[in-house]
Amino acid sequence: MKENNSKDKKIGYKIILIIRIILILVIICCSIYIFMWYMENRKNANMLSKLTESSVIETISIDVPIYDDNGVQQKTVEIPAYELNFDKLFSVNDSTVGWISVPNTSIDYPVSQAKDNSFYLNHSFDKSKNTAGWIFADYRNKFDGNDKNIIIYGHNRMDASMFATLKNTQKSDWYNNENNKYITFTTLDGTHVYEVFSVYTIKMESYYLTTDFSSDENYLDFLNTLKSRSIHDFGVSLKNTDKILTLSTCDATGKSRVVLHAKLII
To answer: Which residues are 258's β-sheet partners?
Structure first.
């Protein structure tokens, strides 16, 4: 009987030892993952800081006239924007297409573009491997002045980098502030100002990512659908001649998308 008890104890000790070893290995693996996550975020943060220092010549102000539906100017809005040295950006990434800035968020990044929509999911601005990714434009956009829907993507990072703070645009203190609804996207052609007309979260789909349209009527239906989805009425009218900017990221679950749409006003 005592011999059996002794064997049972030995078996119990072995089981406990195995469990402890497994837990230690799990802790080590988690620690390595957290360390790598931190280092990759830090690398991107340092890169952004250097890009801003080398490429942003100065912050300027743009006077943007705002018109009503009848074409009558109602007011002038002063929008902050960057004067950029694109040669500096191109020296790091020859696929740079612009710089996106969204007021009262952490979205303030140069935007790149690849031949597909997967490369910058795990590569940084300098094209080095990085799971934090970078901000990038849809590969279908041509940036020739004819894009009806320019689409820009970014990860929803836990450190509030990339497009993590896009969700802030769905908070009342953001969308009730008139100064927040003017987004700047600076390209080689100059600074373009977009007025936000829709913000929402939706299950993963491809409809709002459409870039080609069969007719003006089809395009206007598309715009009105996007506007009807908004959780807030921005009071912006839309025409089939409008060109829009779409920002998209995952929500915290990864199953839905946080989306913002804005129309080009200058």
So the answer is: 201, 249
Q: Identify the domain containing residue 86 by its residue range.
A: 48-264
DSSP assigned state of 147: -
pLDDT in tens, the chain (266 residues): 555 566 666 776 777 778 777 777 777 766 666 666 666 778 888 999 999 999 999 999 988 888 877 777 878 889 999 999 999 999 999 999 999 999 999 999 999 999 999 999 999 999 999 999 999 999 999 999 999 999 999 999 988 899 999 999 999 999 999 989 999 999 999 999 999 999 999 999 999 999 999 999 999 999 999 999 999 999 999 999 999 999 999 998 999 999 999 999 98
The domain tally of the chain equals 1
The answer to whether residue 18 sits within a structural domain is no
Residue 104 inside a domain? The answer is yes
Q: What is the pTM of this model?
A: 0.88
Check if the beta carbon of residue 112 is closer than 8 Å to that of residue 97: yes
